[in-house]
Amino acid sequence: MAEKLQEHELGDFLHGHLKDNRYLIVLDDVWSPADWSCLAKRSSNDPDCLGSVFPDGGKGSRILLTTRYKQVASHADVRSIPHEMRLLSKKKSWDLFRRKAFLDIDAESYLPDLKELGEKMVDQCNGLPLAIVLLGGLLSKNMSHIEWKKVHDNMSAYLAKEGQIAGVMTMLNLSYIDLPSYLKPCFLHLSLFPEDYVISTRKLLLLWISEGFVLQQDRQSMKDTAEIYLNELINRNLIQVVRTSVNARVMECRVHDFIQELAIEKAIEHNFIGTNIVVDPHLFPSSSPSLFSSKSRRQSIYSNFERVLDLEGLGIENDIPSLAMSSCPHLCKLDIKGRMQKLTETFQFPRNLSQLTLEACRLDCDPMPILEKLPNLLTLRLRAGSYLGKEMHVSANGFPRLQILQLLRLKELVWLNILKGSMPWLMQLEFDNFKTEIFGLNELLNLVEVKISFSSLLAMIVFHKIEDSFWGLTRIAGAEGGMHICRQKGLTLASSKQALEQLADFLEQCSRLIFV
């Protein structure tokens, strides 16, 4: 509901909700007096509704505001004296460093000169907790005197400026320099996310893999290797954990403001990110013009990539605009999650696009007449809420190279008509709705694999009628259940047609059993 309100309406809504309640509101990292004024003011045509969003009802309500700037705190409440956070004492600084650098090992067990070096470096952090934490994470990787001396000497070189921010940025620079080569692209990739954005680690790892940042290791999946990369960055205190699973795996993470500033600075320095796409700043407020560069190695709008373009989280409610993606000639994988009023010819897909996923787009018009013209599309996934219509039609010669078609949770779809000559190379079909009648299956001569999700025992009975013929089947484990059907190899053309007719009859029987 709140997302649909105008600014003044949201202010009135919050005021009305808070005025009869005792509340505590925390506003973190407010940057300017103007930001506070924008947050707190309320404008309304109702003369009784003028003033602050946050009502003082005499119930002991409080607002806690954090900021880097004293003038912001003074502006927010001229009657109160801002509480200034104190720097850590020398003893507390060393205790914090010792926990981060030596972990569970007693610091006294190390050589005295190692401790002496550590104390000198901690002193240069000037009591700043973030700088100390980063220093500890940096030094915990190597306990040799030579490495610690190298960090100590670099710290002295970087401390050309005085002040708290300079101290933090010094440590950040050192932490970046110390990263092994395979972690630096992963770190720079973090610059593409907005400030304070909670990142799904599942998505992050997949993006790293898709971007080619993850090296193939013997006897280890790329996903496992990517997770090792993530944990290394976490152990170096460059990524903060937001949420973990019951078995302690990281599910969500975020990046501290200072660390993100460094990632952006280094990404620009190395031409790692940028875009030559025209962006409407009202639609993409998170996009930073400073990142735009036609010379960059990675085309981006907030989290858009030459090879992987993910538009989820951009907050576009009415339409995903034309992104002139033809200007990204290397874009081959595209994942669109978000409402689209229509999929028109003006939405220019790049010619090299080989994999497309649509989800929650809520399209009313059949997308197939447009998508079937993509010359190099190999995989098409239409997932929950991507299409709200009842029928889809694939014309002759449509999808000339498509190999995988996935139709999942399209609840309204009742008819898929595949004309002869279309999808000549389709090998795998996956769906989960027996209500959908598929016409033209017998023309898909290269179809060798079908995955069907279902939970009906009646469908299981019919499945066994197809077994031991042209098809082999395997039960899919899990809550949803289902069957993985594979066609036998080495069939003649006549046998292939017979197998496809058998498959079509089987699906029709399942539909009658479940919905009659």
List keywords for this structure.
single chain; 516 residues; alpha/beta; three-stranded antiparallel beta sheet; 19 strands
Q: Would you kindly provide a written description of the structure presented here, covering whatever features stand out?
A:
With 516 residues, the chain is of the alpha/beta class. It is 33% helix and 15% strand. It has 15 helices and 19 strands. It has helices at residues 7-18, 33-40, 70-76, 90-101, 112-124, 129-139, 145-158, 164-177, 184-189, 201-210, 222-235, 257-269, 368-371, 457-466, 493-515; strands at 24-27, 41-42, 51-52, 62-65, 199-200, 240-244, 250-254, 308-310, 333-337, 355-359, 379-382, 391-394, 404-407, 415-418, 428-431, 437-439, 449-453, 471-475, 482-487. The strands form five sheets. It has a nine-stranded mixed beta sheet, with no helix packed on it. Strands 5-7-6 form a three-stranded antiparallel beta sheet. A hairpin with a 5-residue loop joins strand 6 and strand 7. Helix 5 runs parallel beside helix 7, helix 7 (145-158) packs across helix 8 (164-177) and helix 14 (457-466) packs antiparallel against helix 15. Residues 43-50, 160-164, 274-309 and 313-324 have low confidence and may be disordered.
